[in-house]
Write a structure and sequence with these properties.
Layout lengths: L2 E6 L5 H14 L8 H4 L4 H9 L2 E9 L3 E13 L7 E9 L8 H15 L3 E7 L3 H9 L3 E8 L5 E7 L11
Parallel strand pairs: 4-5
Antiparallel strand pairs: 1-2, 2-3, 3-4, 5-7, 6-7
């Protein structure tokens, strides 16, 4: 049996958040607009400020494969910018490869949507166009492409997707 828990990160979670972010950058560098090399030497103050500047949710998983203790396996970060009254931005989502297809991503998405809805905001994100698995996850949660795109420094294209406040329950894991 798999047990998944998601909680909003607090200042005491800075080390776990940093570890998850660096694991994400190592695992899927093509999915992020930063790199492991850029972020691995950033000071503790940076990570604390990053945690306090957004709604960050951490996912822990317990199962036979992961052991009886809940292990940190993923995170999602939602920025609630004061100047954008109707919009929140999902700026980072990652789940450890060994924890994928177990419901962790859906549980993290539910937390992100709950956060945006609690602030009365629509949730927007940019996703690398070639990241089909991420696009499918977002589509399962009701996100649609807006038609806006942006080109990253390395030439990759990110497409914008949005989802308004509404249904919060996670769909069946796929």
């Amino acid at each position: 049996m798999t047990r998944i828990e998601v909680h909003r990160a607090v200042p005491g979670d800075v080390a776990v958040m940093r570890d998850l972010r660096l694991r994400a950058l190592r695992d899927a560098p093509e999915a992020f607009a930063s790199t492991f090399e850029l972020e691995r030497h950033l000071p503790a103050e940076y990570w604390r400020a990053r945690l306090l500047a957004a709604d960050t949710f951490l996912c822990r998983l317990g199962s036979e494969a992961w052991g009886s203790e809940l292990a940190p396996v993923g995170l999602v970060v939602v920025q609630i910018a004061p100047g954008l009254a109707e919009e929140a931005k999902l700026v980072s989502l990652w789940v450890d490869p060994g924890a994928r297809r177990l419901g962790a991503a859906d549980t993290l998405m539910a937390a992100a949507l709950t956060s945006a809805t609690a602030h009365g905001r629509h949730l927007k994100l940019y996703v690398v166009e070639t990241n089909v698995a991420a696009r499918r996850l977002y589509e399962r949660h009701g996100f649609v492409r807006t038609g806006a795109e942006q080109r990253l420094d390395d030439g990759r294209i990110e497409v914008e997707m949005t989802r308004g406040p509404g249904r919060l329950e996670a769909p069946a894991s796929g």
